[in-house]
Amino acid sequence: MSRADLADLVGVNPQTVGSLERGDYFPSLDLALQLAEVFTLPVEAVFGRTPFTPLSEQLYRTTGGSDV
Amino acid sequence: MSDRRNATPLVALALGSCGLVYATALFEGQASALLAIIGGLAWFIAYVLLRRHVHESADLPDDRLDEREIAVRDRCYLEAYRLLGGAIAASLVLAVVDDAVGGVVASWNQAWAALLFLSAVLPSAVLAHRERAHPSPV
């Protein structure tokens, strides 16, 4: 999905999506919920107050480092 | 593209400032009518450049902007308001001090003209400066 597609879906300017990606702008609760709906994920899976760890690190932690 | 966009408000302010100096010098009898006309034109071009640069953010109604654009615009206008307040205070102090020492730098006419110019262009200049060129949507 492109930035423009996502922006269209939630009704914002594509530059706003870019600002969200870079962490330059923190969305309102309404916009955060709309974005979470688009990805069919809970809002805390899309936005958080601390940086997300890389997926590989999460997976390594879950499996205890075996078979990864 | 980014550099050009960010340079526009600075170029406009510089151009407008030069224009302002010439235009106000006419009041003091230090410039010819031709220079004053050129100065006035420079100021007008600077104003139009700035307004064109920020047209979308500054002139569209709220329902045509998203929440980030409204927040950025409002923050810029607040900053411009504070800057203008500082400029008014500084200009008045300068004019009073200058009068006291014999009026060698500026006159009240020039101070008022500078403030009028600033009040017209400062909100647009701050908004234009804050707007960053973002990568095109992928």
Commentary on this structure:
The complex is a heterodimer of chains A (68) and B (138). The two termini of chain A are 29 Å apart. In chain A, α1 (3-10) crosses α2. The longest helix of chain A has 10 residues, at 29-38. Chain A contains 5 helices and no strands. In chain A, 59% of the residues lie in helices and 0% in strands. By secondary structure, chain A is mainly alpha-helical. Chain A has a single domain (3-63), classed as Orthogonal Bundle (434 Repressor (Amino-terminal Domain)), CATH 1.10.260. Chain B is an all-alpha fold and 138 residues long. Chain B has one domain (2-130). Helix content of chain B is 79%, strand content 0%. Chain B is built from 5 helices and no strands. Chain B has helices at residues 2-27, 33-53, 55-59, 67-100, 108-130.
Enumerate how many helices of chain B there are, as a single number: 5
CATH topology of chain A: 434 Repressor (Amino-terminal Domain)
Largest sheet of chain A: none
Instruction: State the distance separating the first and last CA atoms of chain B.
Output: 17 Å
Which stretches of chain B are poorly predicted, pLDDT < 50 over at least 5 residues? Answer: 133-138
How many extended strands of chain B?
A: 0
Mean pLDDT of chain B: 76
Number of helices of chain A: 5
Quote the beta fraction of chain B.
Answer: under 5%
Content-based structural category of chain B: mainly alpha
Number of strands of chain A: 0
Structurally, the number of domains of chain B stands at 1
CATH C-level class of chain A: Mainly Alpha
General shape of chain B: flat
Order of helices and strands of chain A: HHHHH
**Helix vs. strand class of chain A:** mainly alpha
Major protein interface:
A-B, 17 and 10 residues
CATH architecture of chain A: Orthogonal Bundle
Mind summarizing the main beta sheet of chain B? none
Q: How much helix is in the residues of chain A?
A: 55-70%
